[in-house]
Amino acid sequence: MVMQFEPVIGLEIHAQLLTRSKIFCGCSTAFGSPPNSQTCPVCLGLPGALPVLNRQAVNMAVRAALALGCRINQTSLFARKNYFYPDLPKGYQISQYELPLAEQGVVELGLQPGDEKGRKEIRRFRIHRIHLEDDAGKSIHAPGGVTYVDLNRTGVPLIEIVTEADFRSAREAAEFMAYLRQLLLYLQVCDGNMEEGSLRCDANVSVRPVGATEFGTKAEIKNLNSFRFLRRALEYEIDRQVQVLSSGGRIVQETRLWDETGQKTVAMRSKEEAHDYRYFPEPDLLPLVVDDAWLDELKGTIPELPEARRQRFEREYALEPSVAELLTQDRAFADYFEAAVGAYREPIKIANWMIGDLTRELKREGRHIGDGRIRPEHLAELVRLVEEGAISGKIAKDIFVKMYESGESAGRIVEAEGLRQISSEADLVEVVERVLRSNPDKVVGYRSGKKGLLGFFVGQVMRETKGQANPQLVNQLLLERLENGFVC
Ligand code: ADP
Ligand code: ZN
Ligand code: MG
Asked: Ligand 2: distance of its center to the CA of 137 in Å?
């Protein structure tokens, strides 16, 4: 009998908060400054220097925790997590241990692939805890066995988000991570830059026989700094553990690393060699108290979150699930959509322009929606002009490019360039009849059964009118003449 195994995964995520200064001192958090230029006695851990908690860091941490459905502990405590490391001058990290800032979160997430209609499957993932802590510095290993240390990062504010072991595949864990990143960006509490280390992830993974209730022994894969690495490392590690267990072996609890070159995880240290952290209460910091008024104020700053917004877009604007998803990826993009729909309620048409032409133009110039030149009301006006028959769909495409280049409104471009659609019968009859008269052989052809020639006539009329003729009217006028004995 072949035993079936099920993976069990929990994530520990560090997110750097977007404050201008560090968590316990006034030093700048700017990235990329000369090494060791942003330090002071507090973040260098010099004797006698006292930490002072940064209120902005608390604001951001609480907002992230609220958005992740957590309960906020209105009193939480700081602790010293002692360990030796060359880039940790204090000899300890200031973290939270026994009483963290937040606990017991729940995140509802729509996962792909959904049902046959493309609707996503809604899953719930729980957050175990979220706490505040300061970051360590950075060691730079140079050629020749020399190691430099840069302490600019020492004391930068972090939140650590620990999930419950609720993920049952590498894909689920990676989708959650992507959602978390999107959420932190929506809230503007983290820049989400995984390459620069502003968002880092450790993945805990074990496997167990399908149907078992106990968890298996886990391995922890450290420092997965891209979605691709996270997913590949988990897929590899799940396979490895299944193979070990299937061949009668056992998993040892250990820390592993993802080796991108070898496309495999490799053992780093076993449980026995693991850091045995010692936590002590932090004597220099008072308990953190977030009173009711402060908490209420922060609750008031939480915007509609991307998953809720995606679901609302589907319902309220009758959008395809994939379209609602694309529109809500980015907060500014979703805001743009709602501003345009507010100006003219044709959500599907507006969404199509945004996902098609607008995204293409923005990408071509490497711009973000916020610095594009077409205002949402202008896009709405363009859609309205098409819907009202003032311009043809084809001309609208050209106008769009002109709008994008000039920042002008659609109406002004139409007036200035005389692009209004010709929808008056009187104006079109003349052109239609002229086209028929200049092609008597094709008229005969059509009447002898080559109905496809209608397209040829439409094309000719469009050419004569520089694309401004109303195509429905052109069709109608041509058919009236071709089907009923109009004489050339
Ligand atoms: P540790 O004591 O090793 O730090 P924790 O219990 O604090 O372990 O859990 C750390 C992370 O590992 C959490 O995200 C948790 O959900 C996850 N986790 C714990 N046990 C397992 C397991 N057996 N398999 C997979 N993930 C696990
Ligand atoms: Zn400092
Ligand atoms: Mg732990």
From this structure: 12
